Here is the input.
Amino acid sequence: MKKTASCILCSLMIQLTVIADNNRVLYKDSSAPIEKRIQDLVSRMSLNEKIQQLNQYVLGENTNANNLGEAVSTIPAGIGSLIYFESNPVLRNEIQKKAMKESRLGIPVLFGYDIIHGFRTIYPISLAQACSWNPGLVEQACGVAAREGSMAGVDWTFSPMIDIARDSRWGRVSEGYGEDPYANGVFGAASVKGYQGKNLSDPYSIAACLKHFVGYGESEGGRDYHYSDVSAQSLWETYLPPYEACIKAGAATLMSSFNDISGIPGSANPYTLTTILKQQWKHDGFVISDWNAVDQLINQGFAANKKEAACKAFMAGVEMDMTDNDYADFLPQLIAEKKVPMERVNDAVSRILRIKFRLGLFEHPYTPEASESERLLLPQSIEIARKLAEESIVLLKNEKQLLPITSRYKRVALIGPMAKDKENLLGAWQAHGQVNDVESIFEGLEKEWKSNIELDYAKGCDFEGDNESDFKEALTAAQNSDIILVCLGEKGNWSGENASRSTIALPSIQEKLVSELKRTGKPIVLILSNGRPLELIRLRSQVDAIVEIWQPGVAGGASLAGILSGRINPSGKLAITFPLTTGQIPVYYNMRQSARLKEGFYQDIPTEPAYWFGHGLSYTTFTYGNLKLSATKIKKNEKLIAEVEVQNTGAMDGKETVLWFISDPVASITRPMKELKFFEKKELKAGQKSIFRMEIDPMRDLSFPDSNGLRHLEAGDFYLTIGNQKAKFELVD
Ligand code: NOJ
Here is the structure.
């Protein structure tokens, strides 16, 4: 009797739950697990609604309040995502209202945008950021970008770019973190954390997008969009590791690359997009194609037409089609013809919805409409941009301690096309950065020196061309000065997408200006702002000091001024090698050993590059004690501790970065001459000592992948290198 009563109660409860569930609409219930919400929503969607989620459109580049209505009416309510070029949340909210109210199921739109090195508060380009060796600062800067972006209505940035680039003719070398896989992984992960915050659903978090998956930096000859010959060994050893590190850091999405990876394009490559990314690494977010990359499969000779392109990209593992409309146009037919199974469609839609749910878009689809002064260019944001610029600047040369410029110099000639320039200090991908936000070199120095040092400006020449008419004025300023600061470099649009150059030398007019100034016999400081390593072979010998400021963003002028005056001690070190000449490309620190140790070099130039990866001077001296190891022999399951004491033995406080490299001289697959495994930057006051420490974990630091991605840990001798010290240890079975 008792049993029967409880059964009745039970079934009553089940029935009540069902009724409640029907009324509740599971996918709208923020307390339900995300996976259940996705399942529920997908089960309610029509095929057309699913396909719309797989598409990204562009929301007019010059959209403003006057054509807002038109922009809203042209966007389908059920679209999956938009590239949002606006900086005002009003338009976003109008579109979002349409999606929430007019689409049958009220699925929010995901608003994406290229926030590459800042949204409005532009900070240094990624290549410069890596030279700071300060991932914490990079995380903070990306946090600023996320805050400004999210308050403008952006949910998702197409950043970070973690393509290893070793050919500086490629314009996009500026967008990545240099030549080293480990450094790209560390800085990429820092930026993912900065954008995504602790939780994607936090108010100022935006989703990151790792790009361009994968091997894009290997584009032949540095020509953009070209074929890339990436062996399976290089794929696993060089190009994939930063992606794996950033996926471990929680990156929500990826963008597939334009390049043809040894015959199978990155945007239709089942091995990279599905086998590695989804099956081996278990990434549960989604992949978007790069702009037009689906259609471009036709140019690449991988698809005969748009329909085949859509099929190949989608089946390989690209879930969202950026701007091509191929998925919208052809997936219905491809599904009807059974070339695309519904399971794949459901999986793709689920992946996109997962990110929308994680971002909290269903609960908070709209962006609060705060004023510009509440959200853009806040003093604390500029402060972060300034610190990052200071730490990114690399002092390449400083003969006879010419720098810093102290009061022994009364008159400084400030010469060159970059001296008063603002636009180019922003670099490529300026997002909503504005020229007037930037402090120029001239302005920075004027503020720094006030009336203590007299600044005499002359432009000298343009960035390119052959007009020498301004040389005379520059020479007069130089003659009348105690020291010459010559500010040269590249225009911002010489870097970035579709901005390859056949030479990494500066245009000859800029080099000629320096030769002219040299005739005055005055000391010369060369200040460079550029988006790639430059060929300095003709310039280096003519000047006494070289300061590389990269494209430093809004606070570039103040940061450089601090370094020139000695208020700031330079602490940047190169994250990419400067070749001696363009013809020396590729040259990078982690090359393989040549078969003949002392032969095989170019006959017409020296063998060494101009400045190696890791090079960077300081105004103080750091003295390294002996490198100590906790053991000289370890087993595969043991750890080794390495330590070095570093002392600031100069007179000025400063920051030192210790870069720890491992070499494996003999292995079953040849290894690079050395590989960066760890780095650490610390501030040391004048006279202060500190121990820098690295823990070597054999599986993590001594193993290497084969061409299938399997890791091998082989017994034998290894070397640990820091600075000019090398310590040997043995790994035993
Ligand atoms: C093409 C670029 O390759 C990519 O990096 C960028 O994110 C997209 N366009 C969107 O602007």
